[in-house]
Amino acid sequence: MKALEKSRPAEGLWMTRAPVPEVGPDDVLIKINKTGICGTDIHIWNWDEWAAKTVPVPMITGHEFAGEIVEVGKNVTGLHVGQRCSGEGHLIGKHSRQSRAGKFHLDPETRGIGVNEQGAFAQYLRLPAFNVVPLPDAVDNEIGAILDPLGNAVHTALSFDLIGEDVLITGAGPIGIMAAAVARHVGARNVVITDVNQARLDLATKVADVVPVNVAKDDLKGIESKLGMREGFDVGLEMSGNQAALDQMVENLVMGGRIALLGIPPGKSPVDWSRIVFKAITIKGVYGREIFETWYKMIAMLQNGLVVRNVITHRFGVDDFEKGFAAMKSGEAGKVVLSWT
Ligand code: NAD
Ligand code: ZN
């Protein structure tokens, strides 16, 4: 089969031929239809410090996918050949304290497809049946291929009650933008999204009914008074990984405000913790998606009026994968989807 592989420890990815994976008794084989390119794939392409210490080579990359089941292992029930699906790319262990408590997303032995295990940028993917998420008609394959990052957005946005709340999202990357759409969908009052990249803020307004603020030029306090917010935002969703953004969030939150942190900072944080103490701010770290509560809620919302399709800005056939990665690296793209059929 065709597979997009990190074949050697150097910059780039290479289209290779790999054997179709063999399916174990508890696995299914998925014929891949569409895949999404993630920031993680860019780290792997670039072969930065994180990738070099994390990813063994050779490795088929990719973890955002939708496709169709073409084979089921002998122990698998409830799934059938021909079923359209996406799936959770975090493969969990079943032994840890949290896993045994049913909090699968908190298992410390989690391994990622396309990072630690052979991934989805291929014509076929083997996946444990446990990880499969069937897709209803309302979720087509290109949306199916971005459920992983939409799930990050949903997990973060649903961390706190947003009904009637004023929400600040820092970082208008694909996940921040989709989180804005989710916040609106569940009934937030004002949703303000910040970035320093105007193209991404423009994209945000094409996906969701949000107020964009370019914090490289404009003052957040000015927008707050324009929106009639006297004491600051109730909830912050940090989706940039940028420390100046987190600082600005703390500054602009109400007393007792809540922050969900998805963005991954580059190193130790220089944030002033005394302000967090004196403002009595609650901070929650968010990793991945709740397995499978996030998937359940995400698909239900997509069936009930949540629309995120405009976040997809580029579509390529997989033979043009280099164009897709170039679009991602430009920093101007939303989601980039590759078609395998
Ligand atoms: P992205 O890099 O595409 O988007 C981040 C955005 O933040 C960019 O548009 C950038 O211009 C913007 N930004 C930079 N400085 C800013 C500032 N001072 N104020 C406001 N915005 C600023 O990332 P993404 O793919 O949308 O992912 C969002 C974040 O979530 C990333 O940090 C990513 O590493 C992280 N992530 C975490 C998890 C997890 O499980 N915790 C999963 C996926 C992604
Ligand atoms: Zn991803």
TrEMBL record:
Keyword presence, Transport: no
UniProt entry keywords in alphabetical sequence: Metal-binding, Oxidoreductase, Zinc
Protein family per UniProt: Belongs to the zinc-containing alcohol dehydrogenase family.
Name the record gives this protein: L-threonine 3-dehydrogenase
A Pfam family: ADH_zinc_N
UniProt-listed NCBIfam families: PRK05396.1
Cofactor(s) essential for the protein: Zn(2+)
Domain Enoyl reductase (ER), first and last residues per copy: 12-338
Chain ranges passing through the membrane: none
SUPFAM superfamilies: GroES-like, NAD(P)-binding Rossmann-fold domains
